[in-house]
Design goal:
This protein is α+β, with helices and mostly antiparallel strands and 96 residues long. It has helices at 23-34, 56-68, and strands spanning 7-17, 37-42, 48-55, 74-80, 92-94. It has a single domain, classed as Alpha-Beta Plaits. The protein is 26% helix and 36% strand. Strands 4-1-3-2-5 form a five-stranded mixed β-sheet, with helices on one face. The chain is globular, with a radius of gyration of 12 Å.
């Protein structure tokens, strides 16, 4: 993972009703709004995987808002999984 000296990188797994409800697009918009970088994708078991990097304070805000999710979703669990993936230098991507 490529992070700057003040950056924190984190992999997150989100479980619940998070597929088929626009969750990935919402996560992408959230990441862009807050100013973190990373990517999001659906997993075959119905959960969503998010890899994110940025300033510690921004990551905390991102995680807090991720717990709530968009109106259409029902987030049951948000699990931190470390971070081992290479992240984009800028922006927030949806991966397939």
């Amino acid at each position: 993972m490529i992070v700057g000296p003040q950056d924190r990188g984190l992999a997150i797994r989100v479980e619940g009703r998070v597929q088929g409800v626009g969750f990935r697009w919402w996560v992408q918009a959230l990441g862009r709004e807050i100013g973190v970088r990373g990517w999001v994708r659906n997993l075959s078991d119905g959960s969503v995987e998010v890899h994110v990097a940025g300033d510690e304070t921004l990551i905390e805000e991102f995680e807090d808002r991720l717990q709530a999710g968009p109106d259409e979703a029902r987030v049951e669990r948000v699990l931190e999984m470390g971070c081992a993936e290479v992240l984009p230098r800028v922006g927030f991507e949806i991966r397939r």
